[in-house]
Design a protein that fits this description.
about 230 residues, Glutathione S-transferase Yfyf (Class Pi), Chain A, domain 2, 2 domains, alpha+beta, Glutaredoxin, 4-stranded mixed beta sheet
């Protein structure tokens, strides 16, 4: 099994969508033996004739799958005798809806907080592509976005408030064990952790403790990745 993920300097792999799949593979006991291949932005479409435009991309014995949610569903259906990522088909459908709702909202805000940090974490040969595409999306230069990045942290904290309600009486969003729903949000935090020193949560935030539990999962798999210490 091969996973293509976004490259970065100093092995600070920060793709939130790749992190969803890395956690999912650990969840299902499929990480051992996985070959991870970092790939630059400009080279993604060259991986196969499938013309993928984003990572992660999974090659499972010749079966190619792109898009993190599609990969998670593939793992769930292809490896049914491993721990479930969703719990049931109904929960898979609900998780898909949550994924569709949270992704565009959170990424739009979080990008304005850490786009400059992301820019500083990618390899030099990716910087022209990154600047061109991100400045077009944000309608400002990376430097202009960085100057006002701090004002978006409260907006990010507000946007994830529904997750605080989900975690209020649980260790994880659906109960005592993590599920793919947890990995959706956690991927965003790993994006921030592995490229930025900015702090997105206060220590008295209920999601702070949840994030700590997520970092400790699978023998501290995520915590061992090369990023910045969360204080």
């Amino acid at each position: 099994m091969i996973l293509y993920e976004l490259d970065a300097i100093n092995e600070q792999y920060f793709s939130p969508y790749s992190w969803r799949i890395l956690m999912s593979l650990n969840h299902k006991g499929l990480y051992e033996g996985l070959k991870r291949i970092p790939i630059k932005f400009s080279k993604i479409s060259e991986i196969t004739s499938k013309e993928f435009n984003t990572v992660p991309i999974l090659n499972d014995k010749g079966t190619w799958i792109g898009e993190s949610l599609d990969i998670a569903k593939y793992l769930e259906l292809t490896y049914p005798n491993t721990p479930s990522l969703f719990g049931s088909s109904e929960s898979m459908h609900l998780t898909s809806i949550i994924n569709q709702i949270i992704d565009p909202k959170v990424i739009a805000i979080l990008a304005r907080i850490i786009v400059a940090d992301s820019y500083n974490t990618i390899h030099p040969e990716d910087k022209i592509f990154f600047r061109k595409t991100r400045e077009k999306r944000l309608n400002k230069t990376i430097e202009e976005v960085e100057l006002e990045s701090g004002k978006y942290i409260p907006l990010f904290q507000k946007e994830i408030n529904p997750f605080r309600k989900m975690i209020k009486n649980n260790k994880f969003f659906t109960g005592s064990k993590p599920m793919y729903c947890d990995y959706i949000l956690f991927g965003f935090f790993m994006w921030a952790r592995n490229c930025s020193k900015k702090q997105l949560l206060d220590k008295d935030d209920i999601l702070w403790n949840w994030r700590e539990r997520m970092l400790d999962l699978y023998d501290g798999f995520a915590r061992k990745s090369n990023g910045f210490e969360i204080k």
